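Each record in this resource describes a single protein on a pair of labelled lines. With that in mind, the following record should read easily:

===
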Amino acid sequence: MVAEITAETIFVSGRIGKAALSERAMAAIGKVPRHEFVPAELQPYAYANVPLPIGCNKTISQPFIVALMTDMLEIKPEDCVLEVGTGLGYQAAVLAELARKVYSIDIIEELLDQARLRLSRQHYENIEFKLGNGCYGWPEHAPFDKIIVTAAPDLIPAALLQQLKPGGRMVIPTGLADSQQLVLVVKDAKGSVSTQELLPVRFSQLEGGESQFQRGS
């Protein structure tokens, strides 16, 4: 799996601006047992570089995308990270290997309950969970050093931009289903925000997205 991630990184190096991902990110990917975060019947495919269904019409991202998003955050050991979209907890486990604290939100209770159990079995103690609409972030623990979103809203939610610390980074897929882009958001020390499109991607839609409310649906 690590070899496939390395090869794919080289293949898209012109788009992402680097030919290799950080040693810390790759070490975390190599350490977390991905088979513990997929349904039992799919465990034989856990280390293939493909997304897999996890129930509730959601998927676990392919390992390369997890590695890329993690790398682009540039997580430091002292960081507090917000994750929107817990799923079964695989990305949260990778984050927990790198950060001081991870706050993870999901709107689907069934997935969140499974994630708690799976992460507890792996003895992660620096993750807190919340059932709720991730578009609104987690104001009680904001601001965050880093934010990662693992489902795609049409637009970057304003609340998440507000809850990102000056000097912070966010990685988020955005756009309509057939034209999503993985976007790196950087907030400078003065609070100004810049964005960079990294790659075309296809993520599950972020449920409860702000644009859905604006359309009244």
